[in-house]
Amino acid sequence: MSLELDWDGLPAPSWQAHLAAAPRSGLQQDWGYGRTVAAAGHTVRRVAVRRRGSVVALAQLVERQLLGLVRIVLLMRGPVWLVPELRDALEPELIARLRAGLGRAVLLWTPERGHVGERLCGLRRVMTGYSTVWLDLSADPGQLRAKLHGKWRNRLVRAEEAGLEVRIVRQGPLLEWLLLASEAHRARVGFRAPPPAFVRSLAEPWPGAPRAQSTLVALERGEPVAGILVQRHGGCATYLVAATTPRGRELRAHHLLLWRAVTLLRDEGVRALDLGGIDTVGAPGLARFKLGLGGTVLTMAGTFLGTPTGLGRPAAGFAG
Q1: Up-side HSE of residue 136: CA atoms within 13 Å toward CB?
Q2: 171 falls in which pLDDT band (50, 70, 90)?
């Protein structure tokens, strides 16, 4: 076998440094995300994958109990390949090794890749994938603005002319306003969004952790009318939380906030922004809003099921 699997041997700073070197990574593979999930009572394992001594991939796994009887291990939007060209050749071996190391647990794997058919690395697809929009931030601001769809750009100009104040905050009353407004909207409309406690936990500092969150709030005469929160992970970021008032919607405040977030993240060295899931049927307006930034749609391959293989010895902590 050409790969070496290091279970839980990589410290947080090294994990984050390797993640930052990857061309693209999802939030679910960030150390801080795993730390937050672990604080909620789940088991989190982190696997550094080496080839000829060098780390070539990272895989963060989350274990959950189903009715107290079945151990489900989730590999979400991973493994993260530091050299993407190695993925097709090495991923079958890696998935087989992970399954062997998980012992009697069931693996549910949601890779960060497009459609590949009903089977992948010997696993059967059990759930179709959702679509998200990735925005490349490597271009200069003028080029990024030129890529905006015409209506989106016109609405941004309207928002810029409205005289709104935009504040960037890390904590405090404006952050709480955003989290509570987003949760109230989620409860009323029924869309999926991270609960406020989870977002607050993501923001908690830990040794060696860089600042990971930025909250941007638009105010009119001192009153908040809209807000967004972006979460950094490695060299990427995710558009994680948003809320608006009727007045904010009228002023197109979200166009202004997201554009400011794009330029802020780019200036800080973030290479790509995950705008989150889109649903052109259930939420066409939100889908048009995200697509209007000129990003690239990625429809995920889906979730694949790996039943216990019975091969090898379970990794420490996964024996059951």
Answers
A1: 10
A2: confident
Asked if 110 and 76 touch (Cβ cutoff 8 Å), the reply is yes
Q: Which of 97-111, 138-152, 194-208, 261-275 has the lowest mean pLDDT?
A: 194-208
Backbone phi, psi, residue 184, to 5°: -65, -40
pLDDT digits (tens, 9 = 90+) for 103-124: 999 999 999 998 888 999 999 9
Helix (H, G, I), strand (E, B) or coil at 3: coil
Q: What is the pLDDT of residue 238?
A: 97
Between CA 257 and CA 227 the distance in angstroms is 7
Q: How far is CA 88 from CA 45, 93, 114, 116, 267, in A?
A: 23, 10, 13, 12, 33
Question: Mean pLDDT, to the nearest integer, of 22-38?
Answer: 95
Question: What HEC string does 170-238 produce?
Answer: CCCHHHHHHHHHHHHHHHHHCCCCCCHHHHHHHHCCCCCCCCCEEEEEEEECCEEEEEEEEEEECCEEE
User: At residue 42, does pLDDT exceed 70?
Assistant: yes
Cis amide prior to 79 (ω within 30 degrees)? yes
Q: Would you list the DSSP string of 79-100?
A: PEESSGGGHHHHHHHHHHHHHH
DSSP state of 59: E
In the three-class reduction of DSSP (H, G, I as helix; E, B as strand; rest coil), residue 21 is classed as helix
What CA–CA distance (Å, rounded) separates 236 from 202?
A: 15
> With contact defined as beta carbons under 8 Å apart, do 169 and 215 qualify?
yes
pLDDT band, residue 312 (cuts 50/70/90) = very low
Residue type (1 letter), 249: R
What is the pLDDT of the chain when averaged over all its residues?
92
Amino acid identity, position 87? R
How long is the chain? Answer: 320
3-state SS, residue 70: strand
